[in-house]
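Exercise 3.2. Students should predict the tertiary structure of the chain below and write it as structure tokens, then compare their answer with the key that follows.

Predict this chain's 3D structure.
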Amino acid sequence: MILPSASTTSLALTAVAALAYAAPAVVRLAPAAAPRAVLLAWLLHGLLLGWSLMGETPRFGFAPALSVTVWLVAAVYAIESQLYPQLQTRWALSILGAGAVLLALIFPGQPLQASASAWLPLHLALGIASYGLFAVAVVHALLMLRAEQRIRLAADTDSGLPLLTLERLTFRFVTAGFVLLSATLLAGLLFDEQLYGTAWKWSHKTVFSVLSWGVFALLLVGRARFGWRGWRAARLLFTGAGLLLLAYVGSRFVLEIVLGRSAA
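Answer key:
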């Protein structure tokens, strides 16, 4: 737990970032003010991540991994909101962002090994970036399914974007996430001993990562060759994302919190 020993700066950044994230969800802001609040929260969140990951004792674990993932989702939203001002995901993002920064405060993870390779941060960055892209894909898939259901009910889609646009964006993020996940697994296979000081082994993290890679590969092949869409595609996306979540965040949670052990 970090609460008793957290620095004043870290606590202040966490509090302000959480409030900025929560503002659009709990306070009725003007249409122009809400995106600015999310942007401010994103900047503060990034500053907080830099403070915790690049300080004197860098720490990482399941909660910081989730925090970085949500930060990446917020970054994508900031870009998409400029391209598609009608996109309506701000309320969900506010809740996720506030929860992520608070969770990382309570569970800051463990110090990174001093003996680890200088390339380890890049390897972690590739993995977490793939997490973020798949998380964005899941958000868009949920919006896509909701729009599809409302169309069938002859109601307003209420998503802010046309169904086909949501579908196209979903698979673009899946493709980008798959490329980064492939690069992460390949780097781990070829350079695991240099990165972590140990040879490649079939740990729980590795097994779940490879399984998720297989599911995403199947999804992309099915989309390209058979035109999979709607619930059929979404089920595979959710399954792959769930396996990927178990791969790092799940295994680290069990080791850090349930078993109270360090993790490589």
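Discussion points: Residues 1-5 have pLDDT under 50 and may be disordered. The CA atoms of residues 61 and 109 lie 4 Å apart.
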